[in-house]
Automatic annotation (TrEMBL):
PANTHER family linked to this entry: ANTHRANILATE PHOSPHORIBOSYLTRANSFERASE
Cofactor note text: Binds 2 magnesium ions per monomer.
GO biological process: one example: L-tryptophan biosynthetic process
Amino-acid positions noted as binding Mg(2+) 1 in the UniProt annotation, renumbered to this chain: 92, 226
Name of the protein in its database record: Anthranilate phosphoribosyltransferase
Species of origin: Hydrogenobacter hydrogenophilus
Gene name as annotated: trpD
The organism's taxonomic lineage, starting at the top: Bacteria, Pseudomonadati, Aquificota, Aquificia, Aquificales
């Protein structure tokens, strides 16, 4: 660790093997809290390279508790990094149910709130779902219902060792990135929001190296880790052939108008749940339009269509047919029975 910290302090990138060694030393208890804290600050100041992100994710994928399901190459995850500090409603969680209602198989990875007003686990629990299901029960949810939720602490016990130093240091680091890159069900398709514009291209390239089939990595220029309804969104798209393309998207591209960011922010989980129900019942609002934008890109990631207009219509149909809402109600019921 001393050699690795010396290299990082000189703003030198680590090789994939060096970052893997460092992560193993930390999660297996060979590194001290001081060394973990120094690693977090050093990587934050230097900036994570694609190779460092990829190597870190490979370790956490190896150590994760697996969810074994059929056809993982079809699974889509909408888990983002969080950490945008903006207090928006649970966009990616609601988007997951819209995708499920449109026939996409979803393996949603998530946690309780760290920086937001309401994490995905907080929302689902508030709405009556049992969130701490075992890998076997999550697999049943995915196979029978087409959507399952993996509560991160249960599936990533290796992360426990670094939680204390991370909390004490209090800055975002490579550990904020590896969770969304380490889907326990092995999802090969991802719509992934990141908290910083500088990470968009890096995360897409790391996903390519990790064997992802299709991915869209997004960052709203208003600071959010979602496709934004209020601003330009920077996008890196990993296509199924392995090509990564960068572009920008604005709501006007599909005929939507912009709304202020404040119109999609909530005070806590109770308000976020009200927004979720409103969207899934098809009540038009800034939140409704924002979910449609995110679901549109999620459907493109799924491989159902490459056309934005077609994807948008599929997302609308999922909501207005009642299928997305039905997926949520059945999700809550089945999680309680298992």
């Amino acid at each position: 660790m001393k050699e690795i910290l010396y290299k990082l302090s000189n703003f030198e990138n680590l090789t994939k093997e060096e970052i893997k060694t460092a992560i193993k030393d930390m999660v297996e208890g060979r590194a001290t809290d001081a060394q973990i804290g120094a690693f977090i600050i050093a990587t934050k100041m230097k900036g994570e390279s694609v190779e460092e992100i990829e190597g870190s994710a490979e370790i956490f994928r190896e150590l994760a508790t697996k969810v074994v399901v059929s056809r993982p190459e079809e699974l889509v995850d909408t888990c983002g990094t969080g950490g945008d500090m903006q207090g928006t409603f649970n966009v990616s969680t609601i988007t997951a149910f819209v995708l499920a209602g449109a026939g996409v198989r979803v393996a949603k990875h998530g946690n309780r709130s760290v920086s937001s007003k309401s994490g995905s686990a907080d929302l689902l629990e508030y709405m009556g779902a049992k969130i701490d299901l075992s890998p076997e029960k999550v697999a049943v949810m995915i196979e029978e219902l087409g959507i399952g939720f993996m509560f991160a602490p249960i599936f990533h016990p290796a992360m426990k060792r670094v939680l204390g130093p991370r909390r004490e240091v209090g800055v975002r680091s490579v550990f904020n990135l590896v969770g969304p890159l380490s889907n326990p069900a092995g999802a090969k398709r991802q719509l992934l929001g990141v908290f910083s514009e500088r990470l968009v291209d890096k995360i897409a390239r790391a996903l390519k190296g990790l064997g992802c089939k299709s991915a869209i990595v997004v960052h709203g220029k208003d600071g959010i880790d979602e496709v934004s309804i209020s601003s330009t969104t920077k996008i890196a798209q990993l296509r199924e052939g392995g090509e990564v393309i960068l572009y920008e998207f604005v709501p006007e591209d599909v005929g939507f108008k912009r709304y202020p960011l404040s119109s999609v922010c909530v005070s806590g989980v109770e308000e976020s749940a009200k927004v979720a129900m409103s969207v899934l019942k098809g009540e038009e609002s800034p939140a409704y339009y924002m979910v449609l934008l995110n679901a549109m890109f999620g459907l493109i990631v799924s491989g159902i269509t490459e056309d934005k207009k077609t994807a948008l219509e599929r997302a609308k149909e999922s909501i207005h047919s009642g299928k997305a809402y039905e997926k949520l109600t059945r999700f809550v019921e089945l999680s309680q029975k298992l």
